[in-house]
Amino acid sequence: MRIEFDEPKCVAAGQCVMAAPDVFDQREDDGVAIVLDHNPGPEHHDEVRDAAAICPAAAIHLVGQ
Asked: pTM for this one?
């Protein structure tokens, strides 16, 4: 699985960070999400799928899931 993140679409809701804190974080200055691991291990796949599903801006895209 590879994560593609459309940063300009991010609305800084933080849902991805709540769903997958080992894979996503937020910038302190504006709250926009950042991807800590674009190729997370299988132990994080369920969390990452959840994060993509609940992202209010649909800014997280998964490739090869």
From this structure: 0.95
